[in-house]
Design a protein that fits this description.
CATH superfamily: NADP-dependent oxidoreductase domain
Number of strands: 11
CATH architecture: Alpha-Beta Barrel
CATH class: Alpha Beta
Number of helices: 10
Structural class: alpha/beta
CATH topology: TIM Barrel
Strand content: 15-25%
Length: about 300
């Protein structure tokens, strides 16, 4: 893997190409996916390949992904950052409910600490801002958890520029996660704010959720490098901005290796110009209790 790194929160150095755990669970991120020993093997291979950022969430499964992370990697090697999320409750494979009351966030964090077998979660991300709870109360709960030593840094998932700017007025934000990839630039302005403030940006659906395979420009660049479209998409993210930290997920050892090998793809200025010209559709943030595309 390439050696490009970023310091999450200014003090946690990680390699920018990480690994996401959503694909270790069943369809709709609900229930188990196959033999758990396969998931353990993928997680261990990721770390063997040099991954130092593992991104998970309490509602993947729910609980299953966090439990697999602990089963595979605990005791955690020095320098490995486990990032998780709270603030969404699952009641079915297509049912996602935003839950941001302070008592809910505290209970979710405590449960994640137990499942992950951690005393402190390096990066704890609010999976969605709850529109029915004042943002100050949600961030205040996370600040309390940080003051208690239960989390080290706070992150936000799926926010607007205005929401991030407002949050930064009251507390430190180390990372954000929004949908962003080669074909979807709806969070471009948010990326610019992250660059200006030194905030890590973990793009979800970094491989376009399968849409990249049919793009002719991406395919042409991939052919020129003897690479796959997915590798080109990840290489583009790594070069696009020094704060981008893609964490592609997979349950396959072969696909994991393919993703991690993208760090070795060196795109030319001409490649970047062609790829930069591609565009996408802005994201839509799901409302509380709405059945929708799953949070990731």
């Amino acid at each position: 893997m390439g050696e490009e790194r970023i310091r999450i929160g200014g003090d946690l150095p990680v390699r920018r190409l990480g690994y996401g755990t959503a694909q270790l669970t069943g369809p709709g991120y609900w229930g188990p996916r196959g033999d758990p020993r396969d998931a353990v093997a993928v997680l261990r291979r990721a770390v063997e390949r040099g991954v130092t950022l593992i991104d998970t969430a309490d509602n993947y499964g729910p609980s299953i992904a966090e439990e697999l992370v602990a089963r595979a990697l605990h005791p955690y090697p020095e320098g490995l950052l486990i990032a998780t999320k709270g603030g969404v409750v699952r009641t079915g494979d297509q049912a996602w409910h935003i839950a941001g009351r302070p008592e809910q966030l505290r209970a979710m964090c405590e449960a994640s600490l137990r499942r992950l077998r951690l005393d402190t979660i390096g990066l704890y991300q609010l999976h969605r801002l709850d529109p029915e709870v004042p943002a100050a109360e949600q961030l205040g709960a996370l600040d309390e958890l940080r003051a208690q030593g239960k989390i080290r840094h706070i992150g936000l998932d799926t926010v607007t520029v205005e929401q991030l700017a407002s949050a930064l007025e009251s507390t430190g934000i180390a990372a954000v996660q929004n949908r962003y990839n080669l074909l979807d630039r709806g969070s471009e302005a948010l990326l610019e704010l992250c660059e200006a403030r030194g905030i890590a940006f973990l793009p979800w659906f970094p491989l376009g959720n399968g849409s990249l395979t049919s793009d002719p420009v991406c395919a042409e660049v991939a052919a020129a490098h003897g690479a796959t479209p997915g590798q080109i998409a990840l290489a583009w993210l790594l070069r696009r901005s020094p704060v981008l930290c893609p964490t592609p997920g997979t349950g396959s050892l072969a696909h994991l290796d393919e993703n991690l090998d993208s760090a070795g793809v060196r795109l030319t200025d001409e490649d970047m110009s062609c790829l930069d010209a591609l565009g996408g559709v802005p994201q839509v943030t799901p409302r509380r209790g709405r059945r929708s595309a799953p949070p990731v």
